[in-house]
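[Q] Does anyone have a clean structure-token version of this?
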Amino acid sequence: MILIAMGVSGAGKTRIGELLAERLRCGFTDGDAFHSAANKEKMHKGIPLTDEDRWPWLKTIRAAIEEKQRANEDAVFTCSSLKRVYRDILRDGDKDVCFVYLKGTREVLEERLQTRTGHFFDPSLLQSQLDTLEEPGDDEAITVSIDLTPEQIVDNVLEQLKTR
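[A] Here you go.
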């Protein structure tokens, strides 16, 4: 099984992804690690990424997913996965890939971004991400509110996985 923690910046993808991997006793990979230096520089400067910027990034993450599957390993990845077409690339028709949508209000996300340090993402890009976001339906993802504690979010995800 491959889980992908998704959502806009500030939703807690890395923290939740790490906790899920710990609880599932599997590997964790942060999708941000696959961004090119040029993508990171653009985001640091407050310039939104285009689809053309994202295609190679998404394909690289998909290749990493396939590598885990070839090794017969479960894993948790993070990736904003803002559009359905992005999720389609990551999923590639694979029923073994499950998205976990970390959903939050603009106010909570802004607050989190303002207090975050050491990340290349410029908080001014939040609106661009919210504008780009195509929220997944129940057919595409497990949805969990980020208003819960990280432990409650993970418990909720694991409970919902049982019924999938």
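[Q] Thanks! Anything notable?
[A] Strands lie at 2-6, 27-30, 75-78, 97-103, 141-145.
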